[in-house]
């Protein structure tokens, strides 16, 4: 059967805050909609609430990709604290009882599991599986469907094991521990339409970025080039669909018709927190969209909270020392990988996210966008919570 193509690729920002959420920015999460499916990238606190406020459908979430777990200092849990509620909500979770066998809801669960249900897949660095398992077990959460956690293991991580003494949750399926090869995790997921690869990026803790690549799509078809030939040789018109897929077809008189060459698909690069994403640069080349953090900026004269003694250099040094970037660093990386568009996110709480209605916030976000644009030379979008846009196919 001819492979289908993605009917749409859409990005919805569920959270654009850094360490502290505010009334206008939630913790990090981004929903990628591929045709009907929803994939989440990071799942900060209250992501479920943000999903309810957006047009993203909870029941369509198929995969969740975590960039870092943050069990250390600073930014604690801002990319993962919303994962358990989303899992429980998505998989019909219910609070259990200490002795689960007495729970009448188990009757229902047993019936549900007779149907074949694909597990919800979670990808993340070491600790993601243990975090989910411990969280579900210690809260006696019963799920109505299975899940699996695949971990991207760094060379310094143990190659095997689950990183926890607790046995798997009743709904947990065995996940893969994926080792790096040549410094990256290539094709951790692949189907007929897209692949997902990942690579480490520099942050204060182990952190990864993801590259989602649409496989080559059918080229532009010019029917005038084919129809007269098909008519002449009395070839069924159904051959057109094979030509459309880029195949070659031999006609009864020996003529060979070649379908249009397939074109490159869309490429999205979604990074976690970083002060230097260089290790992902090769995988990320020529992205249609780069999502890069810009936690801190130096905005004298625009941001009233700018300290007199601060310079761009001091702000950049401070951002980097905490594992973060400035708009200029994000813009430079976008240029380096020849991205077509740059989306900035993960903003400091001092930059409010209501720039659609608040003049001062608008000034600040425009200035941040401009700083990135000057280094990038391409279009820049500053993330606002619940903002949503499509990534159009390449021409
Ligand atoms: Zn963060
Ligand atoms: Zn972080």
TrEMBL record:
Span of the signal peptide: none
Gene Ontology molecular function, alphabetical: 3'-tRNA processing endoribonuclease activity; metal ion binding
Gene3D superfamilies found in the cross-reference section: Ribonuclease Z/Hydroxyacylglutathione hydrolase-like
Stored InterPro entries: RibonucZ/Hydroxyglut_hydro, RNase_Z/BN
Coiled-coil intervals, chain numbering: none
Alphabetic keyword roster: Endonuclease, Hydrolase, Metal-binding, Nuclease, tRNA processing, Zinc
GO cellular component: nucleus
Names of the cofactor(s): Zn(2+)
Domain of life of the native organism: Eukaryota
Pfam family, one: Anti-Pycsar_Apyc1
Subunit structure and binding partners: Homodimer.
UniProt name for this protein: Metallo-hydrolase/oxidoreductase
Species assigned in the record: Obba rivulosa
Lineage: Eukaryota, Fungi, Dikarya, Basidiomycota, Agaricomycotina
